[in-house]
Design brief:
- The chain has one domain (24-142): Glutaredoxin.
- The chain is built from four helices and seven strands; from the N terminus they run βββαβαβαββα.
- The protein has helices at 41-52, 75-86, 105-113, 151-157; strands at residues 8-10, 16-18, 26-32, 57-63, 91-92, 128-131, 137-141.
- Strands 5-4-3-6-7 form a five-stranded mixed β-sheet, covered by helices on one side. Strands 1-2 form a two-stranded antiparallel ribbon.
Length: 158
Amino acid sequence: METIYEFSAKSLQGKEVDFSEFKGKVVVVVNTASKCGFTPQYASLEQLYQKYKEQGLVILGFPCNQFGNQEPGSSKDIEKGCAINYGVSFRMFEKIDVNGKNQHPLYRFLKDKQSGLLGSRIKWNFTKFLIDRNGIPVKRFAPITNPSKMEQDILELL
């Protein structure tokens, strides 16, 4: 696998989304959780999305319950919480694993292409990957990095 366009995932509404539809876009992929100290990052992600979506920015959120049981809800619970609490309008997907034997293939690919400071494992919620217009991961951001700090990197790719 060379690009994210070779993957797909199910939306929160249960529809399979083929990532080839993101060809030519700048993409941010982030693993999320609704009961995490970093959950307010949803608001910053949404601000970036609103500011740059017309220029080709796409944000893909992947709820994950692998860190401290911080995403225990159903797809409906996740969707409702994101919309009500943070006004999230970017794409959200069904809950997945980002590490281990059941990890989603997209995350295996992302971690292979952009390992972290202490290895490739995802360490916590809100690890962010920046993907260029060719579908290639170009940068990884730690959970503590506020999405607003990604703006310059996003602009360079837009």
